[in-house]
Amino acid sequence: MPPFMYSVARPLLSWLVNTQYRQAECALPILMYHRILEQPDPLQPQVPDARQLAMQLKALGDHFTVLPLHEAAIRLRDGTLPRAAACITFDDGYRDNHDIAWPMLRRAGMPASIFVATGFLDRGRMFNDTVIEAVRRLPTGRHELSAFGIGPFELSDLASRRVLIRKLTHALKYLSTARRDTLCDQLIHMADGALPDTVMMTREQVRSLARQGVDIGGHTVNHPILASLDPEDAAHEIITNRDELTTITDQRPCTFAYPNGKPDQDYTRHHAALVASAGYEVAVSTAVGVATSQSDRHQLPRFVVNEPDAIRTVARMWRMGRFRGAACAT
User: Fold this and answer.
1) Where in the cell is it found (predicted)?
2) How confident is the model at residue 302 (pLDDT cuts 50, 70, 90)?
3) Which is deepest, 72, 120, 141, 268, by most CB within 10 Å?
4) Measured on CA atoms in the order 226, 132, 284, 68, is the torsion positive or negative?
5) Domain 3-123+200-320 maps to which CATH number in 3.90.1150.10, 3.20.20.370, 3.40.50.300, 1.20.120.1200?
6) Are 193 and 230 in contact (CB under 8 A)?
């Protein structure tokens, strides 16, 4: 979209934002990212690249006041949140958060929270990235995938690879960590080659971000579905992650994101209580919506912004302002 169109639309966009996010109503949109790619990836069309993020940050800088998550949550509760406040968060601990996203955020003068799953630091890889990189390398033709509950699958073009990535991710997401790792190893063998092992940050990169003022939050050790674990194992994931982050950053984390994050499906109120008892003051889910002063501070909703330009980014933020009081775990 030509830049002049944004310049023409900017006054209207400002009016829409200020109408939707009036100070008296105290509504807080929290944006959720994972990766920021250097260049677009045809196998991950939903993942923003640096150019796309730059346009989104331009829109946020023009129309919103981006605050640190912890500060915003406190001010939301106290009714002191400024008009059109927003927060930016990243999940998992990808290296591109350090290499690409943070330099852009720093130049824009915007804070962010990065929720780190410590078990994948230093040459680790999330299971979904194993799926993507393995499917990228699988030869064209028929593949037997009965072990994954899929059966025979014909890889013929880019579209079929995208379909297979979705199917495999869905098949693996709710398995135990051990079973998921076993099947991922099988995928790696099928791809007949080493996969990238520098996708996630190192501990030193996490430490560097913390020293630069980035909020490093908890995200468990192994990124399990907490609701699938025994209570003791869930507590271990939360507390061990907290302690490892404290060691890495020399400061105790105060924010947390639930892995996968769907209330009642991926975590329950019991897990929210575990997070609170572990000393986390704010936690976010993936329930889609905008937080309000009535929201549970340990279950704040978020939403994804993957619009390709500034106008549609602001329009998305405006639309999401209508979805308040998102679901919480029971």
Assistant:
1) Secreted
2) very high
3) 72
4) positive
5) 3.20.20.370
6) no
End-to-end CA distance of the chain: 44
pLDDT-derived band at 330 (thresholds 50, 70, 90) equals confident
Tokens of 38: 């250097």
pTM: 0.96
Total number of residues shown for the chain:
330
The lowest-confidence range among 14-23, 267-276, 309-318 is: 14-23
Q: How far is it, in rounded angstroms, from Cα 149 to Cα 19?
A: 49
The token pair that represents 273 in the structure block: 């209580």
- Tokens representing residue 314 in the block: 């602001």
pLDDT digits (tens, 9 = 90+) for 264-295: 999 999 999 999 999 999 999 999 999 999 99
Domain boundaries, the chain: 3-123+200-320, 127-191
- Angular region, 84: left φ>0, alpha ψ -120 to 50, beta rest: left
| Structure tokens that stand for 77 in this block | 């509760």
